[in-house]
Amino acid sequence: MRMHGIMRTAVGAAMALASVASSALAQTWPVKPVKMIVPFPAGGSADTLSRILGQELQEKTGQAFVVENRTGAGGNIGTDAVAKATPDGTTLLLTPSSIAIAPALY
Question: Is the N end or the C end of the chain the one with fewer CB atoms within 10 Å?
């Protein structure tokens, strides 16, 4: 029951992002493949949802969206990789809001 609600929310978010992406097609973003970093293991819900979102965005923008799993330290390794990435808008972090507590824990 809970997973069904999560999936419904994720699909809604993907559709919202896809509609935003389609309205922004007149702009030049993305000009190169977009890396979507998921700080959790492959096969989990965050990974699955990011792959669905990436596929939808790829279809809307015509640019590649690559999902990369960077696991470890409760999501901090992947989050750190995004924080240190070149600020050109082609590296995204896909994580649940629970990551907000990480600074207090680590």
Answer: N
